[in-house]
Write a structure and sequence with these properties.
The chain is of the alpha/beta class. Helix content is 28%, strand content 17%. It has a 9-stranded mixed beta sheet. Strands 10-11-12 form a 3-stranded antiparallel beta sheet, with no helix packed on it. Helix 10 links the parallel strand 6 and strand 7.
């Protein structure tokens, strides 16, 4: 068994097994973890300083999850947009391909928490082959996003087999991997894994950091190894109440990501997914943060603030409005709030 697999084996899956000072106040932990499984591996557990801190909130179950009466089970309509098991085909030219049903750490705000880590999410040889066959039969699909669960929890051999199958499809131009293991289980990023990934360029990785404390020596090394393998890295951060819903935290996070060669890609407004309502912030909060970032960090460090629209309508940018009027002369505000003028083009 490899080092990262050993770490996973030692994960905590029951709140009562946590150190006493980190245990949540739960009346019925068994009911909660039955609906929404818990897994905190030793690496990520060590990042927690105190109960209710930004790392604790992301990893430890809370009663608010099963008291959520606001959000929907499948808010993004992934089931409706799934023509075959494991495939979500929302945009014409790309598909989401779910190839794993487990993660290195079960994030409490997960969009797919209704099924990840449970028997509800069936991933096996048949579903993966069905997904490959679907992609083969739809030449309009140029871009495949491999996700789950976390696809990097597959063995090296299984992942290599999958990537080879996808790369052999003539229409597929881009392969992306959606994975949080550089953040939650960085030891999974090994020289052999990087060797495999390099064989199938162009490969892109979207990873997921939500707080500056997640940028450790270990996660920095993992991202460096991937970047040195020629893999562009992006980060999809989620705006979370009590975790990162302020300018200072997001600013430090974006700077930290650039230092480890990860491009801030999206800052997501929290999805309306059942069990996550307590994490959601207002859109005004996110727009204020985005306004504050402009001028404090280069454009390289500014993500697109967006919401993944309910019902499967797709991602919608939530850009702050800098335009005060638009006619022959554009009147706008700069990042400092100063009114500026620009003569509009055209005749």
């Amino acid at each position: 068994m490899t080092n990262w697999q050993t770490i996973l084996t030692d994960s905590i899956t029951d709140p009562s097994d946590l150190p006493r000072h980190l245990r949540p106040d739960l009346q019925n932990s068994e009911k909660l973890t039955h609906h929404y499984p818990m897994r905190v591996n030793p690496y990520y557990l060590d990042l927690i300083h105190t109960k209710n801190d930004p790392i604790w909130l992301q990893a430890i179950p809370q009663t608010a999850e099963i008291n959520d009466t606001v959000c929907a089970l499948d808010t993004l309509a992934e089931e409706r947009l799934s023509p075959v098991a494991g495939i979500v085909h929302k945009y014409r030219d790309r598909v989401l391909f779910l190839v794993a049903n487990k993660c290195a750490m079960y994030c409490r705000f997960c969009t797919r928490k209704r099924k990840v880590g449970t028997a509800e999410m069936v991933v096996n040889e048949q579903t993966i082959i069905a997904g490959i066959d679907y992609i083969k039969s739809h030449p309009e699909v140029k871009d495949v996003l491999i996700s789950g669960g976390d696809p990097l929890l597959l063995s090296d051999e299984r992942l290599e087999w999958l990537l080879a199958k996808l790369r052999a499809i003539p229409a597929v131009e881009i392969i992306r991997l959606g994975t949080r293991v550089p953040c939650t289980l960085p030891s999974r990023i090994t020289p052999n894994l990087c060797r495999i990934l390099k064989k199938f360029h162009p490969i892109y990785i979207n990873t997921h950091f939500n707080h500056p404390r997640e940028i450790t020596q270990e996660s920095s090394t993992a991202c460096t190894m991937l970047a040195d393998s020629g893999i562009p890295l992006g980060c999809q951060t989620v705006l979370l109440r009590g975790v990162n819903d302020n300018l200072e935290t997001i600013h430090h996070l974006m700077r930290g990501l650039l230092r480890i060669r990860v491009k801030p890609y999206y800052l997501f407004q929290g999805d309306l997914s059942r069990g996550t309502n307590h994490f959601r912030t207002t859109i005004e909060c996110g727009q204020q943060i985005m306004r504050g970032l402009l001028g404090k960090i280069s454009g390289m460090g500014i993500p697109t603030y967006a919401v993944d629209g309910p019902g499967g309508v797709g991602k919608i940018p939530l850009t702050p409005n800098y335009i005060k009027s638009l006619a022959n002369t554009l009147v706008f505000e700069n990042y400092e709030g100063r009114t500026c003028f620009y003569e509009n083009g055209g005749s």
